[in-house]
Every structure is written in C-alpha cells, then in structure tokens.
Amino acid sequence: MEEKINKLILKALEVAEQTGNFIIDQAPDILQEFYRWHTYKFIFWIILLTLVGSFLTKPVIKSWKALIEDDDDLPNILIAVFGTLTVVTCLGFIVSNLYNLIFILTAPKLYIIEYFLN
C-alpha cells in the first residue's frame, strides 16, 4: 500500500513539473493573448457605447427642447431624464474603457500586475 502511495505521489509531482514547464514555455504566447484580448475588449466596448450614446443623443436633445418649450407630456419627460442618464452612463463607461486601454498600451507589465492583484 505504501509503495502505491509513493508511486502516486511521484506521478503527481512529475505531472506538476511538466505542467509548470509547459506554462513557462507558453508564457510569452499567453501574455500576448492576454494583452490582445483585453485591448480588443476595451476597443469593442468603446465602439459599442459610442454607438449607443450617439443613437440616443438626438432623441434626448429633442425631448429637452420640447420640455423647454413647455411641452410637459410624460413621454418627453421620460425620454429626457432616462435618456440623459443613459448617455451620461455611456460616457462614464467610455472614459473608463479609454483609461484601461491607455493603461494596457502604455504600461502592460504594470497592468498585468494590477489585474492579478485585484
């Protein structure tokens, strides 16, 4: 029984060593994929949020103009308030994603350290 346990432990150590060697060998490729994925993810969100914000801006401005001209109907109020909140939220997320994109492009090593510490 003890011999089988020793063989099992040796096998487990061998597999762990091979896994560690594989990760070390693949580390440059893994890091490139990590950076590429995060860069494209931030670009995707910036584009998507810009499209959503620009799509909503015209109806929001139109609703605010109608409210200023004393057209206080409920649809204008809802579009103005919720549309403005949505556009402002989109702008906040765009700024956040721009910050992260600039961070990963200018300080990739610092970005990965901060990413894994959080």
Mean pLDDT: 87
Count the DSSP helices. 3
Percent in strands: under 5%
Principal-axes geometry comes out as: elongated
Concise overview:
By secondary structure, the chain is an all-alpha fold.
Description:
It is a single chain. The protein is an all-alpha fold and 118 residues long. The chain has one domain (30-117). It is 93% helix and 0% strand. It contains three helices and no strands. Helix 1 crosses helix 2 (74-106) and helix 2 (74-106) packs across helix 3 (108-117). The longest helix has 67 residues, at 2-68. 6% of the residues are buried. The mean pLDDT is 87.
Characteristic key phrases:
118 residues, mainly alpha, elongated
Show the helix and strand layout.
Blueprint: H1 2-68, H2 74-106, H3 108-117
